[in-house]
Amino acid sequence: MTAEPEAKPRRIRNISELAKLAGVSAGTVSRALAGKELVNSRTRERIQALAREHGFRPNQMASRLRTGQTGVIGVVIPLGHEKKQHISDPFFMTMLGHLADGLTEVGYDLMLSRVIPADGEDWLERIVDSGMLDGVVMIGQSDQFAAIERTAAVYPPLVVWGTARPGQRHCVVGTDSFVGGQLAVRHLLSRGRRRLAFFGDTTGLEIEQRLAGARAALAESGSGATLAVYPTHLSQQEMPGQIAADLDRMDPAIDGIFAASDVIAMATVRLLHERHRKVPEDIAIVGFDDLPLATQTVPQLTTVRQDIAAGARTLVANLLRRLAGEATGSTIMAPELVIRESA
Known about the structure:
Layout: H1 15-22, H2 26-33, H3 41-53, H4 60-67, E1 72-78, H5 90-105, E2 109-115, H6 123-128, E3 135-139, H7 145-152, E4 158-161, E5 171-175, H8 177-190, E6 195-199, H9 205-221, E7 226-230, H10 239-249, E8 256-259, H11 262-274, E9 284-289, E10 302-305, H12 308-323, E11 331-333, E12 336-338
Parallel strand pairs: 1-2, 1-3, 3-4, 4-5, 5-11, 6-7, 6-8, 8-9, 9-10
Antiparallel strand pairs: 10-12
């Protein structure tokens, strides 16, 4: 005779059914499933075992409504000055990867928003007032410094990757872009380059500081070197055409380029190759970021390194402290010149 298969335990649909099965109150079940020590360990383990046996998982949404927490952190990318830039930009993807690792490791989900603000709009206030988020990490300040300051005054769990200005309210983690600009130009000057160009759109605060540092290094050198500025955007559609046009109208005597990002630098290397200009023999190039792709170019890219992984960890740590009610100051990291083949 063939034995009949054992019947599967009946699936439990809610806390009340589990409480009836366990012979305790619904409150006791709720506390036991949450691991509360108010329930003695033997009862807690028995209830948890029954829940597993009957395939019961607490309704996370209902739990979050009771606690007033969503378990979700908003990761916001404001594109006020680079409206055509995409999240697929290698810098964003690198930062997002590290943020996702850090936030999910402490139990949070991410909600990603690419925002194109309009002048005067309360776009950030609407995000933080949505009731969908426990906190916000912003990647970049774009040209939205005033909007971020206004929100930070009333919304503590907000941390931002970017540049710190004296007296600002919002908590920033970022790299000293001014010093980074100095490092890049000092290096080009040390290689004997005297006719320099800067490729980057200075509407964004970080790139503005990179250019300011470059100019400061030039002034302190007393070398008589010059620096021409080309406002290159980071839009994947427009950037190659812009750089191509800049190279075509650029003074042929230019012998060094400081690019405001590795993405701009890598595109410039390729376009110079198409014009039969050698890097670094004809033109030396220094980028900014030290993305993983910087070692994949030919020649490999000399660049100013900002520690994106450490920055993401600090953003997460500061956000967690703010969620716990603590105040946090800004963290500005020192850049590092990484010398490879392009300069």
